[in-house]
Amino acid sequence: MIYYSKVSYTLLSVVFIVFFGPLIPNYINDGFNTNMFLMTLALIILFGLILHMFFNTTYKIQNEKLYIKCGFIKYRPVNIGEMKKVSKSSNIISSPAASFDRIEIRYGKFEELIISPKHKTKFVEDLQKINPEIINNL
């Protein structure tokens, strides 16, 4: 089963403003020139890669493992049998989550994973089908 990450358009808007906001005064003061064009083009390409990551973050449950892919980046699979607890999280730490509506998965001895599946309840239910001992604190 594949779950897509929930996407926060507010977060995406903030990233857009941070990327392109500083260009506005430069265009007003200096006008359109080759350097500004190249800078804008580079930022558009970089923002396109960020968009790709936002809309292509997936969480795949297969063969009793959780596979996480964020754009072009693949994370090490997590054994669902080692998962102990799932709970809501407001942690803003960098993670494969395109939204601030996140869940934290504790597994192994002291490890944790923060993700943001669109359908959290169904996602946790599918995890619990494989490992019924997972504590659900959503």
UniProtKB/TrEMBL annotation:
Keywords: Membrane, Transmembrane, Transmembrane helix. Residues 57-131 form the Uncharacterized protein YyaB-like PH domain. InterPro entries: PH_YyaB-like (IPR009589). It comes from the Bacteria. The keyword Flavoprotein does not apply. The chain crosses the membrane at residues 7-24, 36-55. One of its GO terms (biological process) is bacteriocin immunity. Pfam families: bPH_4 (PF06713). This is Membrane protein containing DUF1200. It comes from uncultured Flavobacteriia bacterium.
